[in-house]
Amino acid sequence: MAISPESLRENPIDFRAPPPSPIAGGRRSSVTNDDVLTDFLEHSLRVPDLILPDRVFPRQKSIQSPPEIDFQSLNSLENNDSITKILDSTARIGCFQLVNHGIPHDLIVSVASAGAGIFQISPEKKAIVSRSPEKPYGFEEFRGEEESEMSEEFVWYRNEGLKLEMEGIWPLGYSCFSEKMERLLSDIEKVAGKILQVLQENVPRKSRFGNGLMQGQEIGGTICYLYKHFRNALEDHRWVSSLKYDVIRMLIRGSDYSHALCLHVCDGSSEFHVYSKKGWVSFCPDKDALVITIGDQIQTWSDGQYKHVIGRPIFKGFESTEMEDDFPEFTLAEIMKMESLFKEVGEKSLNREFYQQVAVNFSCSTYRTGKSVIRWEQVQSWFQDKQKKKATKVTSWPVVRERFDVPSNACSLKPIGKRVAELSELVFEAKSSKDCAWFDVAAFLNYRVVSSGELEVRVRFAGFGNEEDEWVNVKRGVRERSIPLEPSECGRVKVGDLVLCYRENNDHALYSDAHIVGIQRRVHDIGACSCIFLVRFDYDDAEEEVKLTRICCRPT
């Protein structure tokens, strides 16, 4: 359709921009122009290749272990050398090791064992006491790049709200853990107070805030972080990936939580890593040392003289000096307790909460001080094995029922059906295979059933270290402790009686089994016995005349 000028004026076109200027026609063909344009675009619009580093973090550097400072030397007048080492190490790498700090190792192990029960609580109950901006205590879980990798943290400090919430989800175990943690924290705060005093008194240059803490701030409390270390050895790439994730998390947390000092318990760790914004170094800490790292508050009031870092002990792989796989680490009393529970529950189906409660009760027991914590999986495995054997009509404990069935002329102990509390009141002695002598039992460490079907227990003898531990046959080598006699009780000893007699010669002095073969009765008062007893030792049939003070009789 043709458009007249009138109609064009009636419908003017609204241009948003001026029309393009006319371009003179080129002499070259369109194909040639396209080639030129393509070449121009390739050179002028080329996006450069961006090559990123192959790792997010700087390479881990191993350094010589920081100096070991004797804590007791800080209390002496001649402590200049120790103080110099502290100042130099904190200025250089932000940490140092503290030895001879006076915190009992048994207390540390006891707290760790009791604390392990915290992580055995079900996920549903953990969610009740999870951390939040309004609630700085409780459980905190983090997941790495793979869902199967998970680390757990529990933050504890003196707070009534935390106490009420934890007693609600873990009534029996938490009071035990909290009591032990209070004792440990009291010792740690004494150590931390002394270190702060040393640092404050020896700031090389005066801070803008004076020779003290930042204005308006005080060290008013102590927070404890319990970290669950997964000791299972991972593939190298997974382990490094998980470690890098933890580094990011710790650096973020370190900037959020202001603190003066951090004291790390590194018992059993293979390495200790120190992180800062400028690098990442590692060293092998001393087994019994506390590693102390400097916080942001101290760096601030020292005007940067002391270096703020974040530290973490590393547990790579699993190492254990005890048998973890062949037999659960149950004591004899714990085995008997589970025997009693097994009879009570009968055919009932047991859930995870039941196993966790048993494990927590065992781990918090005073008899397990210094020993490894009992895991709920161990308890579950024990009960499942019992149920399988019962289902196949195999007698589970033919030996256990007669574990204390020693000869009638030796002793008669309480039946296994009695409560464990009654067993714990008994005192035992065990026979060493090295010299056929009897020694008091300090603890039953473990048990096993040998190929003959007999039960053996691992015994720690009273007054001896773990290098003298022995496996002892329960039927032949464990019995109730022999009893020394008062002078007025000499009439109880008869010819033919089995006694425990003290035997001494140039090589040894031991208590050995013997039988009375003759007695010379003499008149005496109640203060001292003058009777003579002729004994024949069972070991070599040697005979000797002894007085009553060298004889212990067997319980009746």
From TrEMBL:
Residues 425-552 form the SAWADEE domain. Keywords: Iron, Metal-binding. Residues 67-149 form the Non-haem dioxygenase N-terminal domain. Transmembrane segments: none annotated. Gene3D superfamilies: 2.30.30.140, 2.40.50.40, B-lactam Antibiotic, Isopenicillin N Synthase, Chain. Residues 1-30 are annotated as: Disordered. GO terms for molecular function: chromatin binding; metal ion binding. InterPro entries: DIOX_N, IPNS-like_sf, SAWADEE_dom, SHH1/2. It comes from the Eukaryota. This is Fe2OG dioxygenase domain-containing protein. It comes from Nyssa sinensis.
